[in-house]
Amino acid sequence: xxxxxxxxxxxxxxxxxxxxxxxxxxxxxxxxxxxxxxxxxxxxxxxxxxxxxxxxxxxxxxxxxxxxxxxxxxxxxxxxxxxxxxxxxxxxxxxxxxxxxxxxxxxxxxxxxxxxxxxxxxxxxxxxxxxxxxxxxxxxxxxxxxxxxxxxxxxxxxxxxxxxxxxxxxxxxxxxxxxxxxxxxxxxxxxxxxxxxxxxxxxxxxxxxxxxxxxxxxxxxxxxxxxxxxxxxxxxxxxx
Length: 240
Prior knowledge:
Blueprint: H1 6-10, H2 18-43, H3 48-55, H4 59-65, H5 74-83, E1 91-94, E2 97-100, H6 114-122, H7 127-153, H8 158-164, H9 172-183, H10 188-200, H11 218-239
Antiparallel strand pairs: 1-2
Helix pairs in contact: 3-4, 6-7, 7-9, 7-11, 9-10, 10-11
């Protein structure tokens, strides 16, 4: 739904007083919440009177809930939305931490940097649309890379045979996930030692285990890690 540009108006600096800032936040919340509620009701094809009958209240109660000038009880808002098959998603942000309070496993509220909004604007998309498209593209690329990694590890390639000998109780799919993480590391040296650690099955990808033999021939293990990393790099280039 297209939102009125309340935000630009509300972001105009008026005062640094905590009470004024809080009042502005409350006004911002009422404006967007009531606008969304009216939009959802209209999309459902219901008048205020029809929704009031559905809720078992008077029309005046619905009118009050849809007014940004009135106080709103959380229970009443939830009742209103539930009657229209909608949910209220709530999160609490403190510094860099974001805590989702709403009970909805199908939707995750996250922060996005300002650059995402700028890219969405350039693409003539809403932020939500842009993020969804980006995730779909990223997921498809990940799937392609992982499938290629599994295919390599299942092949008769000499390096793949050596890797399978070190799997232990791990599955090829599990090792492919770990190797995929290793490829995301920036420094080549970090990638090499991370691959070695995955082969040794002693630490998680990205952690250091340099200088520890762990009863494994370090030279042989590093040689195999280097050979495997070369093949992984080729696969990554092909998947991109």
